[in-house]
Amino acid sequence: MNAKSIAILMPVYNAAPWLEACLDSIINQTHTNFEVIAVDDFSTDNSLEVLKKYSQQDNRIQFYQNSDKGIIPALQLAYSKSTADLITRMDADDIMPPQKLEWLYDAWIQNPKNIITGKVNYFSDKTISEGYQAYEYWLNERVTNQDFNAWMYRECVLASANWLAHRDQLNTVGGFDELIYPEDYHLVLKWFEKGIQITGIDFVSHLWREHPERTSRNSDNYAQPAFFELKINHWIEHRYDSVSQLIVLGEGQKANLCKQILTNNNIPFLQAGLQARKNIIDVNDILKYKHKQVLVTVFPPEKERQKLEQFLTKNKLEKGKNWWYV
Predict the structure, then answer these.
(1) Nearest CA-CA partner of 280 in 294, 269, 268
(2) Fewer Cβ in 10 A, N or C end of the chain?
(3) Helix crossing, 47-57 with 16-27: angle to 10°?
């Protein structure tokens, strides 16, 4: 039986230095039944010329000019032009391992109701920052542990260009039409709302290029405040229980972002820390509340993290039910 076609949606903005390598990695896939729908997002370099050249060489590659600036309009246009039942994304500066589509497709055959993802690997001409290394490790740990839902509010549990979904799963959440930035995280949260599960495969299925011009490095749409605005508001809408005492555990920038969003939504809360002081209760004092929800804004090293989780578990709080990393 012939393998199903996969639509690869690819926004392109000033990606000329890396676009040929990206397209070559797609053309060389072992799963050959695919369509590339690339959308040039008003590039000012020669990205459009590269797309024209490759589309002339391979009729599986189509390109369009974006009608409105931004990744979300580009994805909307690309999706509207796609015909395949299976959908994935690609970033124009990244690389697909040769078997990426084959691996994701084979896993989807076994789990057709799930979103399929794999592990990631950052690469760069320069040193990868500790932050990106930590995120790579964390994402891959989710695949190893298959515990995506429990960590849904900590970070986006899927790399933006490292998933495979059936068109029905996108249509169930309105496709790309109702997304806000950061759009990759919003899409994952929408799938989470609908109870759509994620299956991870034990292969590095995406090579993530780290460079100074990455959109995620340079756009406010992907800065930490944007992620907090999205996830805390989502948590309020879908997880907040007004009967319980809400505790913000931790101090620092993330705690402050969390507190500000809760305040803007008129959500009452207490803040807890390692010791009591003005406007902060001691972490042990949260135990006096019979019904409580805890947003943990700290993510300490592993040993301290284990102690924290043991403390919460010992006091009958369950991750993903009564407490969440944010």
Answers:
(1) 269
(2) N
(3) 20
Question: Which residues on adjacent β-strands are paired with residue 63?
Answer: 38
Q: How far apart are CA 247 and CA 267, in angstroms?
A: 11
Task: Give 126-129 contacts, CB < 8 A, sequence gap 24+.
Answer: 126/210, 126/211, 128/210, 129/210
For residue 307, give both structure tokens. 């102690």
Contacts of 16 (CB under 8 A, 6+ apart): 43, 45, 46, 47, 50
The tokens describing 7, both together, are 């639509």
For residue 230, CA distances in Å to 49, 184, 224, 247 come to 36, 11, 10, 19
The pLDDT value recorded for residue 216 is 75
The CATH number of 6-222, from 3.30.9.10, 3.90.550.10, 3.40.50.720, 1.10.510.10, is 3.90.550.10
Among 241, 234, 233, which residue's Cα sits nearest to residue 294?
241
Q: Where are the beta strands (DSSP E) in the chain?
A: 6-12, 34-40, 61-65, 86-89, 115-123, 163-166, 198-209, 245-249, 270-273, 281-282, 292-296, 323-325
Question: What percentage of the chain reaches a pLDDT higher than 70?
Answer: 100
- What's the confidence (pLDDT) of residue 123? 93
- Rounded to two decimals, the pTM is 0.95
Separation CA 74–CA 77 (nearest Å): 5
Sheet order of strands, 292-296 included = 281-282, 270-273, 245-249, 292-296, 323-325
Residue with tokens 């990759």: 184
The span from the CA of 154 to the CA of 79, in Å, is 28
d(CA 315, CA 326): 20
> Long-range contacts made by residues 139-148, C-beta under 8 angstroms, separation at least 24?
142/200, 143/117, 143/118, 143/119, 143/200, 143/201, 143/202, 144/200, 144/202, 146/199, 146/200, 148/197, 148/198, 148/200
Domain 239-325 is classified in which CATH homologous superfamily? NAD(P)-binding Rossmann-like Domain (3.40.50.720)
